[in-house]
Each structure stands twice: as structure tokens, then as C-alpha cells.
User: Fold these one by one.
Assistant:
Number 1:
Amino acid sequence: MIRPGQYVRDLLQGSPGTSVTAHGWVRTRRDSKGVHFVQLSDGSSFQDLQVVIAEGAIEPELLRRVTTGACVRVEGELVDSPARGQKVELKARAVHVFGAADPASYPLQKKGHSFEYLREIAHLRPRSTTFGAVFRVRHALSFAIHRFFEERGFMYVHTPIITASDCEGAGALFGVTTLDLANLPRTPEGAVDYGEDFFGKRAYLTVSGQLEGEIFASAFTNVYTFGPTFRAENSNTPRHLAEFWMVEPEMSFCDLEGDMDLAEEFLKYILQYVLDHCRADLEFFDKRIDPGVLGTLELVADSSFERITYTEAVRLLERANRSWEFPVRWGADLQSEHERYLTEETFGKPVIVTDYPKEIKAFYMRANDDGRTVRAMDVLAPRIGEIIGGSQREERHDVLTARIQEQGLPLDAYWWYLELRKFGSAPHAGFGLGLERMLMYVTGMKNIRDVIPFARTPGHAEF
Ligand code: 4AD
Ligand code: MG
């Protein structure tokens, strides 16, 4: 087993003269007169460990198997490195090849591959430079998320993956069933009889843990859930996945202002965390993927977000004097082009838009006194558009009942959600951050399929 202190990351900080053992995969090998250079990676850092094998140090037969993609163990001594950008390199004394990789057929060659091609080899792409960086940043962001909430006394709650209720009321649900699709049980009326199904009723993969999060916020005050969520919307865009990870805090005794304050503080905190802990990875993105991204992140980490109402946003868009693909009109949802205009051209930073028309938002958002809008907020980020969606929740039993009916949703499915408003109802609010949208923002990667280990999109569920 590799113990802390033996990761490539640690070895790179080691002192010359130390005897060490390194494990990893060969990224490249370069042969020069009397010496062979092997770049070794174990995924622990952006930088590889340079292994130097002197001619004759190991058997020629063994050396022939040390090729790109091979998995090896190297024993030797750390020595001062004459090469630029690294303090030490590993002078090999003994090499063991765990698994060779045929150089002719290894799919991950040194030449730059397209991201499309790399998606087809998602079992190997984590070993590439770009995806190594993406997944290290993904890990760091996830850790920062937990740390942010821990420092603020939030309780982490595991909300269910399988559910019988549609949180967003949008109907983009994946059904979960054990019924034999070729031989469905029928009710006397001829409908599918889900009473015969595993759960005795229709069940789905969750689109959001919010409703159950609200249950816990009514007992533990401040909570968050962080897990996979599923949407069967057939939108083949660079910003949509059928399976993605969402972070959802829920706070009792909190209104929309408090919700926005937390969202802004949260985004800046996790941004600052990756700036502090993933420097080399971010510098790579800045150099190779999205020039300028690093500077933007640093700027955003200590600027304040713009806050405007939906009505103001519509006014700004109308005044823009543009021919929009989707016409701007009060009551219509903001499209990606509108979100980008506001964040990139009008303000040049993240923008929080509040108080959307009730018709285009979910049933649980608190109704404003104007009768037309709800206490919703979307955080929009340059390039990405919506990165966070949240709201103050409707805590009034009668208003909520009316809203559920207004939207044509079945009241009985939400009986327990309504009961929370009957027994000790509290003003409360929360939001959801799409982890992959955040990763796109941080890394500058342009397709959401390239910031999740194994993307699920219409027609794709390989791996
Ligand atoms: O705006 P959404 O739909 O909000 C909710 O689900 C609320 N229940 C959250 C809450 O208040 N607790 O989704 C929240 C975020 C979006 O802003 C976006 O970042 C991300 O989830 N998201 C997606 N990410 C990738 N693929 C998709 N299909 C996504 N749909 C939403
Ligand atoms: Mg939304």
C-alpha cells in the first residue's frame, strides 16, 4: 500500500539523498544518450516525477516494457534535478512493471487528443493531463463545500435518491420500476398498475433533495445535502447532464436576502479554496484551456455580485438593442443568451437575479405581495449562465396549497410537505448549486461532459 509521504506529490518535496519507492503510470518516456527519462504520474499532483534510468541500471528486457501507459514501481534515490521546474528527480535503482501497455495500441498517445475522442475512452482519460487537473479540482471543490458548511454549523443530511415526489414539479423524471415492461400489470381501467410495483406506487430518481432538506431544516435549523440528482430533460446542450451533483443548503429563520448572502459567500469561499490549493492545475487551465480564467477567478473571489430583480433584468435586455434569438418579454424565462449578456456585457461579473414571475418558477417559492412574482433568486455566472437556483420558501399553509393546485400538481403527493406548514412552520430559504456548472466556471472547460467522471446524456451511458 502507498502510504502518505510516498505519493508523487510528496516525493517532489523530498530531500536529495533519500531512498524512496514511487508507484504510478508512465506518461512518457524519452531516450537520450546513455540515459532514459520517464515521467511518472500517480494522479496526486499536476507535476510528474521525473525518473532517470541510467543505461545498464536495469535489464534491457525490462526497460523495453517501461512505455507510455505502463504501471510501474520504481525504487531509487532522490537527487537534485538539473531540469527546470523541479527540485528533485528519482534516480532509479530497481524497476518493477506491474502491467505493461502495448505502445502501438495504447489509446492515450502523447499527441493532443480531442475532448470528443477522450469521452469515448473515459476509462483512460483520467490519466491525461487535462482530466487529471479537472478531477483534482473537482475533489478540492467537494471538500471545500463540506468545510464551508461545517465551519458554519450546518448539518449534512443524506436525502433519498429514490423518491415518489417531483420536487421541481417540472416532470423531467426518470421512473424507477421493477415491473416487467413486456408484461405490465393493468388496473381494471387499463392503466399500468403501479400498486404491483416494487414500492407499491410510482417512484422516480430524485431531481433535487430540497423537499427532504426542508424536513431536516425544520428540526436541525441549518442543513445541506450534496448528492447526485437526475433530470430526464432531453436537452443536448453543453450545460446539461441527465445525472449531475447538486449541493443544497436549507436554512430556517432565513429570508431571500440571507439566502443570497450565503450563496455569494459560499461561491467565493470555494473559489478561494481552489485558488489556494490547486494552483498548478488552475495555471494549466489558464494557459491551455481558457486564457484569463485565473485572473477572473481571483477577481470574482473578492468582488461583490450584482443584484437585480427580474423586472430590471428584462428592462436592461429590452434596452440592449439586440436581435435576440429568444425574444425578451416580461413573463418569459431568461435564456442563455440573455444571461450571458447580463453577466458578460452589462456587469462583467456574477449577477443575482431575483423575484421572477411565478409562472416560470417552482410551486414552493414564496409569493410576493404583488401577486405576480416569487422570492426566487438565480445566480448567473459569466460564460456559464445559471449556476445557482434558489428561493425563500412558501411557509404559509394556505398560500402553498393554492400554489400547488394552481400548478396542477396533485395535493396528496405533497401531504407531508404541507404538514410542515401546519406544525411549527418557520420562515426558511435555500438554494442549489450544480457542481458541474461550478467546475466549468472554475476550469474554463466548455462542455459539461468534461467535468464529470462519467457523463450521462441522451443516448450515452457507457462506463
Ligand atoms: O434551478 P434548479 O432546478 O433548482 C433546484 O433544483 C432547487 N430544488 C434547488 C434548491 O433550491 N434547493 O437547479 C439548481 C442548479 C442549477 O442552478 C444548475 O446549476 C444545476 O442545478 N442544474 C444542472 N446541472 C447540470 N445539468 C442539468 N440538467 C441541471 N439542471 C440544473
Ligand atoms: Mg433553476
Number 2:
Amino acid sequence: MVLQRIFRAVIMGPPGSGKGTVSARITKTFGLQHISSGDILRANINAQTELGLLMKSSIDQGQLVPDDVMSRLIMKDLRAMDQSSWLIDGFPRTVSQSEALDNAYSVDTVINLNVPFQTIKQRLTSRWTHLPSGRVYNVDFNPPKVSGFDDVTGEPLVQRDDDTPDTVMRRLKAYQTQTEPVLEYYRSKGVLETFSGTETNKIWPHVEAFLLRKLSPAKQNVA
Ligand code: AP5
Ligand code: MG
């Protein structure tokens, strides 16, 4: 779909709720740029940048990285795509981060994936990731064509260091205490749209239909 105006969206949801999976479908269908805070941090760790080395232990322990570090990283990327429509995945994750984003840009829509914690715990231990692109697979749900290798590049897949059962529990806890208040922040602004379910393939048609309505040319002209 060709968008008539700049559209800015955020996707939220607990760890493993399918943000990366749904973002890939949104960006493919609607042509938005995808920015994933987790992918940016993992790229820094992989390239052994100073920042990556500093942040690795927090991430591996399931803790959030400091607000100022994260906000600076994301804002730098957003400034580089000032004239593009975008979808941010994994940011904001605290009320302070949402205020930082709000000071620079107004967000049109926040898509919230509401998936039960029980479902999530099972998923994350069977996830495999292609680190350079952030593409995710799951041995039960969407396996790669060749086991252990990325469909597009043929490069090896890895399991994330923060996908161990103990760390997943800590990430869920951090989500409850630090990120759930962000949902309230966006609900009060009237931009939060929640999609509940246990299967991405069942949630996706609702997200797609919502965005089609929201981005149809008639609506887009009404700015
Ligand atoms: P980040 O990379 O953002 O991780 P997360 O929020 O924990 O989310 P995930 O990427 O684990 O899950 P997802 O919702 O994208 O789900 P996915 O599509 O992969 O952040 C990592 C860390 O970086 C944080 O813990 C923190 O330390 C730091 N960080 C990042 N942003 C930050 C910020 N703003 N501030 C501070 N710190 C920050 O799906 C999950 C799996 O389920 C996949 O295997 C998928 O294939 C599978 N799946 C999907 N649907 C189904 C289904 N229906 N059935 C079975 N499996 C399914
Ligand atoms: Mg992700």
C-alpha cells in the first residue's frame, strides 16, 4: 500500500508476544520502516561496540538498559528517517521513554499485543533468531526451511542469551512493573489499540484489518 501521509506507530506487548513477527508482516504489507530496540542493542553486542559491551550483562539478566541510553539510540535513528513512516518495536518501554518520544514526535497508533504469560514462556525457549536481520523462527510455529539456517541469507540461526527460563521470568517481571504503565499513558491519549489472543496467525488478520481501515486513502486525506 502507498501511504498518502507520514504514519508513525509503536508496537507493544510482553516479551515473546510476537512484536517482531507482527512487525515483519506490517512492514511488508504497509511499507513502513521497522525499528527494533532489541535488534539495535543486539547488533551493538555482536559488533562488540563500547555500548554493546556495557549493556550485554543487563540484557542477559533480563533488566532494562538505562532510559537515557535507549532514548538517545532510538532518537538518532528516528532523526535519520524524518520523512518516513515508521513502526517502533520495543520502545518506549518506560513512561520516561514515552515522554522522550512524545517530545519529538506525535504517535498515530500504538498496537498492543496482549498474550498470556503462560503462552510466552513456552514460546521463547523454542525461538531461533537471525541476528543480522532480526528475523525470528520457532521450531513449532514457523520453522526455517532448513533447520538452523535463515531462509533469506542461508546464514546460521542462534538462540538469544536472554531466552533461558529464569531470564524470561525476569523480563516478564520488568514488563509488568516498568512497561505496563506505558499502556495506561497511551490509553489516556486515545491512541492505544489492543489485540488479544494466544496465536499470532489469529491476531494478525485483526491488526491488518485495523491498519487497512486506518490507512485507507479516504482516511489518510483527513489527516
Ligand atoms: P527485545 O528484543 O525488544 O525483546 P522483548 O520485548 O523481550 O521481545 P522479544 O523480541 O523477545 O519478543 P517479540 O514480542 O518480538 O516476539 P517474537 O516475534 O520474537 O528486548 C531485549 C532486551 O533489550 C530487553 O530485555 C532489554 O534488556 C533491552 N531493551 C530493549 N528495548 C529496550 C528499551 N526500550 N528500554 C530498555 N531496555 C530495552 O515471537 C516470540 C517467539 O514466539 C518467536 O519464536 C515466534 O516465532 C514465536 N511465535 C510467535 N507467534 C507464535 C505462535 N502463535 N505460536 C508459537 N510460537 C509463536
Ligand atoms: Mg522482538
